[in-house]
Every structure is written in structure tokens, then in C-alpha cells.
Protein 1
Amino acid sequence: MWLLTTGALLAVLGTGSTELRFRAINYVEKYACNDVVVLPCFVVNLLENNDSTMHVRWMIEELVLLSFHGPNQSYYRDVSVPSAAFASKADLAKGDASLRLKSSEAMDANYTCEVTELNREGETKIGLRTRMERQFDLIQSIVISALLAFIIVLCWAQLGVIALKCETVRKKKKDVTIACAIFTVIAIVAVVLFIQDGTISMNQIGLAFTVLPSGMLMVLQYSIFKLILDDVTRKGYALIGFQVVGYLVAVVGFALSVSACPSVLLSVVIAGVVVMAVADLLALVYVYSCSRTKDHQTPRKAVEEPLNDTKGVMQE
């Protein structure tokens, strides 16, 4: 009889414990691409299963982010976190008091979830950490950077061909050389921002500096053609048009890539940059062939002029 009484008393005391217990969760990770963050808070020993008997508070240190008063179904929400809400109001009576926040409003910190049911209460702490991640695939980023470097080498190679083969245009290429140097500096800065492990906004700026200033290449290519040709030929305009097509594809890929997180459309940018690289390679071949023609014509003209003068003297 004594054992039965003791067992019943212990059962009553265990059921009527004044402490609420929670599912143990130490921290959650927030990814940079997440729009929403959910901080879990699960009570495992509710008795009433009725939210009208509950009071819930979410806090960071002493700052109350969200509170709920069950008897009158009222809420309080701090103005600094207007998105704060329960992940599921319907599941609150089942012990799910998880907090839902916009990612932009969720700061890395230790959050406290306090729950009271009648005369029973308890709290749990959950840490929030931001996990760094890339918006763009690293391999694809390296490919784009390598293609951009290849395009820059081709631009300088065209200037080198002109400098070696065409003595008469050396003085005219100063402005083109400066423009090529400026584009090179922009490209180096872009690659550093683009491929480094940093914030998503920094990677987006790097991609923007990689793609958008590439429009300078068409103007630069036209200027290079003008250095070696008096009038740009149809082949020259066709090569510039080929570059324009590649640039437009790269810009479209950029617009699609920055709007997706994580981005799976960087291949469109790669396709555009590949077209531009091929156009620059063909332009180098074209400049080399034109320079050889110009190089051969210049000495011939220099020889023909004395011969013409000699013929004039003989005729007199």
C-alpha cells in the first residue's frame, strides 16, 4: 500500500512539474542565399495543448523581438524586426513556438525562447550563425576569369603586331594603348572581386566589373583597326559585330545570374565571353595579315618614288 501511494505521488509530481522541457538544438546556420530564417523552439511536455493558456517570448539579450499572450491572443513585435512571426501559429498549441524572420533582419546572435503554460515555464537558447557561401560556382568563375585574361592578352598582342610591323602608326597608338591599359586594370580588379570567397554582393560587383566594361572591347577593336587601315573593311566590321553578339549574350547571362541565388546560369556568361574571345583571336589574325600587307606596301612605295623621279629626269 505504501509503495502504491509513493508511486502515485511521484507520478503526480512528474506530471505537474513546473519546468517545461525543450528539444535540444544548440544553433542553426543561415546561408547567404536564404530569404527566410527559422529559429526552432519545441516544447516536449505541454499538458493543456491550448495556446490560450500559453505565453511566449523571443528575445536577443534583453530585447523582446516577439511576444504572444495567450489569454487575449495579443502580440507584441519590435519595430526593428517587422517580419518576426511564429513559423506556424496552428502548431503553437502543440509546442512548436519556432520563430520566422527575414534573413536580412536576422542577425548572428544567441536567441532566447521563453514559454509559459499556466504555472509552468521554461526557456531555451538557440544560436544563429551565418555560413559564408558563393553565389557563383568557383570553377565557372575561374573559367570566366581565364577567358577575360586571354582576351586582354589578345588585345595587347594586336598592339604588339602593329608596333613591330607598322612603323608609321607608332605615334597614333598612344590613346589605344592607354585604353587597353585601363581595361586591363579594371579586369584585374574584377577578377579579384569575382573569384574570392566573400559576400554575395562582392561577388556580384566582381561579375559586373567582369562583364559590363567588356563593351570597351568593341571600341578598342575599332580603334586598333583604324590604326592599321585607312578604312575599316567588311571583314573588320564583321569581327566587331561578332564581338557585339558575344557581349550581348554575356550581358544577358549576367542579368540572369545575379537574380538567382545560388546561380546556375553562369554558363550563359561563359558562352558570351567565349564568343568574344574567338572574335578577338580572329581579329589578331586579321591585324597580322593586314600589317604584313601594309609592311610590304610601304617599302615598295619608297622605292617607286625615286624611280619616278629618275624617269622624269630622263624624259626632260
Note: Residues 138-297 form one domain.
Protein 2
Amino acid sequence: MTITGTHFNYYQLCLRKLWLFANGINMEQESDLVYEGKLVHESSYPQRTARYEEVEIDGIKVDYYDAKNKVIHEIKKSNKVDKAHEWQLKYYMYVFEQHGIEGVKGILEYPLLRKTQEVILTDIDREEIQTIAEEITSVISQEQCPPVTKKGICKNCSYFEFCYINEMEEEE
């Protein structure tokens, strides 16, 4: 199984979400928040499509890659889960390195907030990426889905109804 940036992102957020996604239970297509994120991506930097390219390598897909300056641009709607965004981008940079593209930089962009954040990949990060990849593989290969872990971000998750259906029925 190919590990993607989405796996790295979900690993930081919720092991249950990671497992569900990796095992083919996808709720994103039903989510208004995911749709909003796609709109932000498509409408924020229309001029970029002509200058930069969307690149796919080993199952990862970066929003924009500036080959001249070796910069990966990753666009996000909100910075509420910025740690997850950082690790997703670090994983992209790592994969580029594994394919011989040295010196790649990363920029997280939050157009609605008018913020950018530079992301650097360190030697410690490279080691951590290998550890995280092993942990991701371990989580997604489990027979049982990890239990619900209540977090502040749950209500905005596309899997919320799936995870909390029993509680919602009890309230009715």
C-alpha cells in the first residue's frame, strides 16, 4: 500500500479517521467543509496554474510545485490543524528527496487568513517520517477500527456522523 500525504495528515488528527480512510470508507465527498476547501484551492491563486504545476509522485499529489525555485506550495482553508498540514507537507518534501530532488522547500498557504508559513525538513523530521510511516502501516493494517477519541475537531470532521451516530440517536 502506498502511503500518501493524506495518511500523514490524518495520522496527526485521528487514528480512527486514518483507518477509515485507508480502508475505503470515504466521507469527504459528503462534506461541505471539504467542498469549501476545494473551492479555496481552485479560486485562490488562478494565475498559478499557468506558472506552476500540480505534481504526482508515488501516490502524493502536491497543489503547486515551482520547479525553478524548488518550492512546494500547499493551500489550506484554515490553520486550525496546522501540525497536520506541516507533516503532510514535510512528507511531500521527503518523497521529492527520495526521487532525487534535493533542496526542496515548502510553503503552507492560508489564503482566507492571508497567511503563509515556511516549512523546513530537518534530519530529525526525516527520521520521524520513517517512524510515522511504520505507525501508519500498523494502524491501517489492524482488523478493527480504532475507537472514537473525542477531540475538539470532531464536530468539523467529515466522519463525525459516522463516529457519533449512536450518541446522536440516544439524544433523540
Note: The longest strand covers residues 60-66.
